[in-house]
Amino acid sequence: MTRFRYIRHGVKRKHGIIEGILPLLEQISEIEGVEKVIPASIAHSPSLSTPHPELRFQRETPSGFKLLAHSKRSIQEIFVVVERSKKEEVKYKLKDLCFF
Predict the structure, then answer these.
(1) What is the pLDDT of residues 19-52, one digit of tens each?
(2) In whole angstroms, what is the distance from residue 46 CA to residue 2 CA?
(3) What is the H or E stretch that residue 99 is in?
(4) According to the model, what pLDDT value does residue 77 have?
(5) For residues 12 and 38, is the Cβ–Cβ distance under 8 A?
């Protein structure tokens, strides 16, 4: 049971999540084929500022996808773990939520 201690609604919440991104991450976790959504390191950018939170597709990984979340001068890496058989379907559905 301790294995899932930090996961709620398919999103790992052990570390911080930048402001306004959580609802988007929960939408991604509801896509069929998505196993986990893992927010990673947060960086601050003095030059980049977006008026509203947004996700950008960065690249494919062996286990799924890497996204970048942008919100009010902060950038956060987001890893999406996907079932291998549904990787293309998930990528197609991510196009509705992310900038490619």
Answers:
(1) 888 889 999 999 999 999 989 988 887 766 677 8
(2) 38
(3) none
(4) 93
(5) yes
Q: To 10 degrees, the CA torsion angle through 5, 11, 12, 13?
A: -90
CA dist 14 and 17 (Å) reads: 9
Taking the alpha carbons at both ends of the chain, their separation in whole angstroms is: 37
Residue 14 in this model has a pLDDT that exceeds 70: no
Q: What is the largest CA-CA distance in the chain?
A: 43
DSSP for 4-72, written as a single string: GTTEETTEE-SS---TT-HHHHHHHHTSTTEEEEEEEEEEE-SS---SS-EEEEEEEETTEEEEEEEET
Task: Kindly state the tokens that stand for 41.
Answer: 């390191």
The tokens describing 56, both together, are 């950008």
